[in-house]
C-alpha cells in the first residue's frame, strides 16, 4: 500500500506538468499562464462565495436544532476544493471545480454514506470497574519457597 502512495505522489505532479505543457503548446505560453491565473483567482472567488453560503446553511441548521452534517460535509469538500485550486495545474482545477458543484458533492456524500458504518456505544459514560484494594508499604518480599 505504501508504494501506491509513493507512486501517486510522483505521478500527480508529472501529470500536472505534462497537461500544463500540452495546453501551453495549444494556447501558447502566456495564454496558459493567464488561464492558470484566471483559474486560481476565479476559483478562490467562487470558493469564498460558496464557503459563506455553506457557513450560513450550517448556522441556520443549528438554529433549528438540527445537526448540520450536510453543511459540515459541504464545508469539508469546499476546503478540499480550495486546496486543489491553490495547487498549480489544470487537472487539480478540474477536480476542484467538480467539488464546487453541489450535485457532485451530493453524489459523493451519498456514495460515502453507503460505504460507511457508524458505531454507537451501547453504554454512555466511562466504564467503571468496582473492586477492593490494599495499600502495601515497602515491605521485604517473602522468601522464595524451597524446593525439595
Your description of this structure?
The structure is a single chain. α1 (2-27) crosses α2, α2 (29-63) packs antiparallel against α3 (69-86) and α2 (29-63) runs parallel beside α4. The longest helix is centred in the N-terminal third of the chain and has 35 residues, at 29-63. The protein has five helices and no strands. The chain has 148 residues and is an all-alpha fold. It has one domain (2-114). The protein has helices at 2-27, 29-63, 69-86, 90-100, 102-114. The radius of gyration is 28 Å and the shape is elongated.
Biggest sheet architecture: none
Average pLDDT over all residues: 83
Distance between the termini: 58 Å
C-alpha-based Rg, rounded: 28 Å
Question: What is the number of independent domains?
Answer: 1
SSE series: HHHHH
Number of helices: 5
Question: Which word captures the global form?
Answer: elongated
Strand content: under 5%
Amino acid at each position: 500500500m505504501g508504494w501506491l502512495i509513493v507512486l501517486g505522489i510522483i505521478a500527480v505532479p508529472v501529470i500536472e506538468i505534462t497537461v500544463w505543457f500540452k495546453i501551453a503548446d495549444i494556447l501558447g505560453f502566456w495564454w496558459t499562464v493567464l488561464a492558470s491565473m484566471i483559474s486560481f483567482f476565479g476559483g478562490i472567488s467562487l470558493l469564498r462565495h460558496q464557503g459563506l453560503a455553506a457557513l450560513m446553511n450550517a448556522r441556520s441548521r443549528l438554529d433549528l436544532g438540527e445537526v448540520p452534517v450536510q453543511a459540515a460535509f459541504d464545508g469539508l469538500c469546499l476546503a478540499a476544493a480550495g486546496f486543489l485550486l491553490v495547487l498549480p495545474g489544470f487537472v487539480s482545477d478540474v477536480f476542484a471545480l467538480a467539488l464546487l458543484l453541489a450535485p457532485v458533492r451530493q453524489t459523493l456524500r451519498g456514495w460515502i454514506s453507503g460505504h460507511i458504518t457508524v458505531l454507537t456505544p451501547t453504554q454512555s459514560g466511562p466504564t467503571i470497574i468496582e473492586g477492593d484494594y490494599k495499600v502495601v508499604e515497602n515491605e521485604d518480599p517473602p522468601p522464595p519457597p524451597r524446593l525439595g
